[in-house]
Specification:
about 325 residues, 11 helices, 3-stranded antiparallel beta sheet, single chain, elongated, alpha/beta
C-alpha cells in the first residue's frame, strides 16, 4: 500500500516510491511485452533477454501484487481478469515512456527511421495506399513498413498501429484526423446493363433492379446511403448477389450482372474509360471522406510525420476525383 494521507513525511513517500519503482519496473516491462506478444518466448526475443529472466520478473511482479496475471498452457498464454485490469492501467504509461524515448532518439538521430505500422480498409489500402509504399521506402529507406488491411475500425492500442486510413464518417474524438479526400458513394452500372434494363430514376426504383450488395467484416450487409431532400437516408435494396469483398462487387458490376453503390476511388478510372456509368447522381451523399488518423500526440515521431506528409501529397496527386468534378482540400 502507498503511504496514507495521514503520513505527511515527503521523505517517506519518496523512499516508498523509489523502492516500489525499483522492484516493479522490470516486471511491468516484462508483463507488457508478454501481454503484447502472447508468449513468454517472443517477449524475451523482443526485449533481448532470456526467457527465464522474463519468467522471474513476472513471478516477482505477481508476488508483489498478490495476483495471478497470466493463464499459461503448453499452447497459449492469456491474461487473467486481474491481468487485463492491470494491463489497462499500465499500458498508457508505458506507451508514454516509449514515446518519450522515441521522440528523443528522433530528434538526435538525423533521417527518419524505425518501424511504421499502417492500418487501412481492404479496398482503399490495396488500391490506393499499397501502390505508393515502394516510392515512400525509396525516399525513406530507414523506415520499415507493415500494412494491415482490415475493414473493421482500427484499434490503435490493440493492433499497435501508428497511422490509420479510415473511410466514411469519423466519430472518435480521441484521435487526430486529417481529411485526405472526399469519399463519394456512387451507384454504378455497366453500359450493357443500362442498355438492357435502364437506370433507376429514384431511390424507390432500386427494388426493380439487380442490386449487388457488400457484406462487412461484422457479417452485416451494408446499406446504401443517399441524401434525399437534404436528409441522409439508408436503403437496403433486395440483393441479387452479395459479396464480402468490394473487388468482387466491382467486378460483378463491370461484368453487367447488376448495379452497386461503390466508393469513388474504386470507380473513377472505369468512369473515365466509359466502362461504368453513374446512376442517381443527384442523391449521392456528400459527407463521407478518407481520413488519415493517428493518436493525439503533441510531438509526432519523425517516421510518422514524414509518412503523413508523403501520403497526403501522393494521394491527392493521383487526381482520383477529377472525372467526378470534385475538388480536394487544400
Amino acid at each position: 500500500m502507498f503511504p496514507t494521507s495521514h503520513d505527511k513525511s515527503p521523505r517517506i513517500a519518496a523512499d516508498y516510491l523509489a523502492s516500489s519503482f525499483t522492484a516493479s519496473y522490470a516486471g511491468v516491462v516484462a508483463f507488457i511485452a508478454v501481454a503484447a506478444e502472447g508468449s513468454f518466448a517472443r517477449a524475451a526475443d523482443r526485449l533481448g533477454v532470456g526467457r527465464s529472466a522474463i519468467s522471474r520478473s513476472i513471478q516477482k511482479l505477481e508476488a508483489q501484487l498478490n495476483a495471478r496475471l497470466f493463464l499459461r498452457t503448453t499452447r497459449s498464454t492469456t491474461l487473467t481478469r486481474e491481468g487485463e485490469l492491470f494491463y489497462e492501467n499500465c499500458h498508457p504509461g508505458v506507451q508514454r515512456i516509449v514515446q518519450a524515448l522515441e521522440d528523443m532518439r528522433d530528434l538526435r538521430s538525423g533521417p527518419p527511421r524505425g518501424h511504421l505500422r499502417i492500418g487501412a480498409s481492404m479496398g482503399f489500402g490495396r488500391g490506393v495506399v499499397a501502390p505508393l509504399l515502394a516510392d515512400f521506402r525509396a525516399r525513406y529507406p530507414g523506415i520499415s513498413l507493415d500494412l494491415l488491411l482490415d475493414d473493421r475500425p482500427t484499434d490503435f492500442m490493440r493492433d499497435r498501429v501508428d497511422v490509420a486510413i479510415r473511410d466514411g464518417r469519423l466519430e472518435d474524438s480521441q484521435i487526430v484526423a486529417k481529411r485526405l479526400l472526399p469519399m463519394p458513394m456512387l451507384v454504378c452500372a455497366s453500359p450493357a446493363y443500362v442498355r438492357r434494363y435502364g437506370k433507376p430514376q429514384g431511390v424507390e426504383d432500386l427494388s426493380t433492379h439487380a442490386c449487388i450488395s457488400f457484406r462487412s467484416a461484422s457479417g452485416r450487409i451494408v446499406p446504401w446511403e443517399f441524401k434525399v431532400d437534404s436528409q441522409n437516408r439508408r436503403v437496403s435494396p433486395p440483393s441479387a448477389c452479395t459479396f464480402n469483398d468490394t473487388g468482387l462487387v466491382l467486378q460483378s458490376v463491370l461484368d453487367g450482372f447488376g448495379i452497386a453503390q461503390l466508393a469513388g476511388y474504386q470507380v473513377t478510372g472505369h468512369l473515365r474509360d466509359g466502362r461504368l456509368v453513374t446512376c442517381l447522381e443527384a442523391y449521392a451523399p456528400d459527407d463521407r471522406g478518407h481520413y488519415l488518423c493517428y493518436l493525439s500526440r503533441r510531438h509526432l515521431p519523425a517516421r510518422i510525420r514524414v509518412f503523413v506528409d508523403y501520403l497526403t501529397d501522393a494521394v491527392r496527386a493521383l487526381d482520383l476525383w477529377h472525372v467526378l468534378g470534385m475538388s480536394v482540400p487544400a
